[in-house]
Write a structure and sequence with these properties.
This protein has 101 residues and is mostly helical. The chain has a domain of 64 residues. Helix content is 83%, strand content 0%. The protein is built from 5 helices and no strands. α3 runs antiparallel to α5 and α4 runs antiparallel to α5. The longest helix has 30 residues.
């Protein structure tokens, strides 16, 4: 418990910043019209490619005996890749709706 309180007091500004970012994100996404929601979410999913690259970089610098970090990195790469592919699939399906037949 002492370590948690020490961490919170040391990183107070970072915690405030994350909380503020969550509230701003919820407000911004909440006020997006329904028509723009699908393109916005497909673009946001495509941006998760940064997560994939970051996880790969972290895994490259991790010691081979650190199984927890390697496991979390592998899960991050898999989920990030699924999110990127899903974003492109949704975008492709959305653009197909506007093609002339």
């Amino acid at each position: 418990m002492e370590q948690i309180l020490s961490f919170i007091s040391t990183h107070r500004e970072m915690i405030y910043f994350i909380i503020l970012a969550v509230f701003v994100g919820v407000e911004v996404i909440g006020h997006v019209p329904s028509v723009l929601h699908t393109p916005l979410m497909s673009g946001a999913n495509a941006i998760h490619g940064v997560v994939v690259v970051g996880a790969i970089i972290v895994m490259l610098d991790t010691d081979a005996s650190n199984y927890v970090s390697l496991t979390l990195g592998t899960v991050a790469v898999i989920l990030g890749t699924l999110n990127v592919v899903g974003g492109f699939v949704v975008t492709d399906r959305m653009l197909d709706m506007f093609k002339k037949k």
